[in-house]
Amino acid sequence: MQATRTLGFGRSCRAFCTRLVQIAALAAALAGARGCASLGHVSAPPETAGAQPTEDVRIMIGEARDRVFPALVHVDVVAVENFGGKKQKQRFTGSGTIISPEGYVLTNAHVTNKGVNYWCTLADKRRVPAKLVGEDPLTDLAVLRLDMAAVAAATPGAGSGPGALPVAKFGDSARLQVGDYVLAMGSPFALSRTVTLGVVSNTERVFTSGLGEGEMSEMMLDSDQRTGLFTTWIQHDALINPGNSGGPLVNLGGEVVGVNTRGGSGLAFATPSNLARQVAATLIKDGEIKRSWIGVSFRHIEDTGLPDGVLVNSVDIDGPAQAAGLRAGDVVRSINGQPVTVRFVEQIPPLLKSLADMPIGSSVEVGYRRDGQDQTTTVVTKELLRDRGDETALREWGLTAQQITPQIARQWQILDPDGVLVNSTRSGGPAETAEPALSAGDVIRSVDGQRMKTMADLIAFYKKMSEMKDKPEYVLIEYDRHGKNYLTLLKPKPDERENPPPEIAKAWIGVATQAVLQNLAEKMGPPNEPGFRITRVYAGTRAADSGLKVGDLVIALDGDRLKPRGMQDAGLFARAVRKLSIDDQASLGVLRGTEKVTISVPLERTRLTPEEAKRERNTDFEMVIREITFFDRDEHQWKQDVAGVVIDQVESAGWAGLGGLHAGDLIQRIDGKPIGDPTAYKETMEAIKTAKPERVVFVVLRGIKTYFKFVEPEWGPGADDKAKNGNDKGAGGAPKPGDSK
Amino acid sequence: MTTTWRRFCTAAALVIGAGLVAPTAGAYPGPAGARPDDGAEYQRINEQVGPALVTVKFVLKVEGGGQMSDFMGGNNDSENEVTGVMIDAKGLVLCSNSQIGGYYGMMGSMMGGGGVTVTPTDVKVLIGDDTEGLKAKVLARDTELDLAWIQIDKPGDKDLAFVDLTRSSTATLGQRLLSLGHMGKFFDRAPVVSEGKVCGIAHKPRHLYVPSSDLSADLGLPVFTADGLVVGLVVLQIPDAESSEGGMGAMMGGGFRGGGALILPAEEVVKATKRARETAKAAEGEKKSDDGAKPAPAGEKPKP
Predict the structure, then answer these.
(1) What is the mean pLDDT of chain A?
(2) Residue A566 at interface with chain B, using a CB cutoff of 8 Å
(3) Of A245, A273, A292, A546, which one is the catalytic site residue?
(4) What are phi and psi of A532, to 5 degrees?
(5) Is there a contact between B111 and B88 (Cβ–Cβ < 8 Å)?
(6) What pLDDT does A558 receive?
């Protein structure tokens, strides 16, 4: 199963678009290939004052383009998502900008989200692998680093030192004004190196809940990760579409003033460069962003009747603000002695950012008014933890699980966070067939009597159990659902493919026929007999040896008249044959022209259908092949000397899929070795697995043409979880399972 | 409307009509049709056939592409159970192939190739009030006749209760028929007797009895005469790809009786069972050959 966020609405997109309905005045949608993007249609180009820019402006646009365009990259991502009770690979695309000669690329976190492999296509069309340096979902920003050795290799003589790469410069986003010309660069719908022109529409856009409430709405990166908390967006009308995500917004000075992150339908939203520059620098330095948290949400005071300050809308349970005695309804009037007034919603992100930017553990003096009395308290900040917990797939249990973070606990209303959340189950898998069944939202508390406080506990148990020689038939799982405590037995089982059951063997004659009805028979001429006209005699069958020819009209079988009365009888001849016994001799009454002849045909067994064919699954290349059948030869008109195995399924983001192999391809050679049947295929693939080459060459027959496909597999342990060229650190720093098989 | 789509709609309509997708409401015969001796007949069929009815549990794996897969929501596993009938003392169970995933193949056939692979896995047979089940496998299937044979891996030493399909009888138009089925799991699979009549006899594409609509016999289960002789098995019969070339009209000819649950005569079931055993034996031989296990020469004991 695959999804390309370039062309589709992601889950976060759908959630966001739901909110759009509420924001009638601001129909905005996520902009990138990853995440969401458009509202479903392509907007008209922006109309600028005077219809056409002046010649001077045109020159400026060209110069601005030339300063940034060479540093523009197209980003390809293979991501692993945990859903449907298992890991599923997907391919996504986005855009990015090279921001340093060391090969750092700034893009969106929703582009790199859950990625395991990254490639960047540079402006000069070189495609090089990259690694993830760090992600900051709260600002939806991420940094990749190009493989500089690959950059050098792709351009002999260019080297990998300073000057080997074009670099874009940041501008000061605070200097942008409404009406300024801006260029959006990126890969809309994966169409790389695209530039569009527009003007800045608003420099302090904040998304609100609309419908008169006017409060800042909570934006989600996925269903479980907030984003945009600290962002005052640059709204512009340079056309962007899915695939533009992470691409630069450029001023006419040729400076990056924003990162295109959301938009569509003529509305585009970029993260200001001043925020992006700070986040990128920290990600490059530390690989992550650490922020302070005090555990309050604020509301601006417009329409509240309050003269100054900012209203505490809610206080998180067990958060620092609650510990310091702050309550919902308090009005904060000063922070560290500085007066604070948030009159408008646009002032909230900067306030949140100023608090988040304080060192973790800072003592913050908060002056507030309660019941008309001014009071002061000291709030000691804590680290703002990620919303999304680490995830994993426990394949033999048929479920995916997630660490419970404070945000997830709030979202799922989990009172006791010591446990592991089940976030999906595989249909028909062990978790779903347990009695009672586990389902998404359940919180696993213990397994076989052992407490499972964290994801690490569960993974350790699972790995230990997987390595046992004598595995228990069942595991006892204690879990909570909606405040009730349950027990169930789960029977672990590998998710393996089995061959379908054999179809019963029946008699068959190797010909194809058409029913000749009475009216057609009369038009064909004397003796005007209806019957079954042979349209093909299959080579290599007993029918071919018996002398049957195309054009022969079969009118009787073993003395019984065969007379089709309508097209509903088209299968009558074949059915009559199937009632006979294999290896019997069938006597066919045949009209050859006007002559009646009797032809004796030894019956043979029905041929194997593609559905019954023997299959082989290869987990390294993530594809399933099957043996070639008689019906494949018939459909493609392959002669007997055409050998190979047919690709039955290819995981689109698996190595075979990425290498361009398709379902239906006939694999004829692998690394020069002829592949005649599944056995030869299996032996060859096992030898390849042992040799672990960097590249494997498949020669496939597709239609009437052969194709050479160069597949670069990932070797090494934990192919399910580990990146080929990405980093292998789990979100939040907790360990990932080496292999969840 | 494309031809493929028309075929698909027809196939779906027939399958739904046959009660495969939409569960049939249990239209069991009421007392109005009862006769004075019905009680004894009902009790007899319950006692004689009841022990041979088993529950087949399995996980259906659907894989592949194309319209069929799209229709089913892509690759998909689902847990299911159907009622089957034991037909020998050594654990051979017969059930409807369409009920264990064969309808994908039938619909694919009607649509001219489904491009989807359907495999019943984790097969278990539950006998009596057993809840765990005995491990089993699908020995062979006949998509055309809608039959599937399931063999229990380790049936044990005791002979199992079974229905002897050779104790059979032909039927005539208007003849009374009895059948025994099971209610669902929620009702503890309570046995239910159903009664009806032969209201038609078809000779094409093969010899089939057409049951009256009040016989609510389940697919894959035997139908008996009032004397307890097997008339045949209830199977799903719909036009195949070859016969659907004439389009909707040809397929739907005869109105709603274009296909559905019909009774395959016991004699045909016995013949098919013989072929199924042969097919399974041949498949087993191929498997051994693939695994590199060669049979020991005659007279020589296999080495440990």
Answers:
(1) 86
(2) yes
(3) A245
(4) -125, 115
(5) no
(6) 95
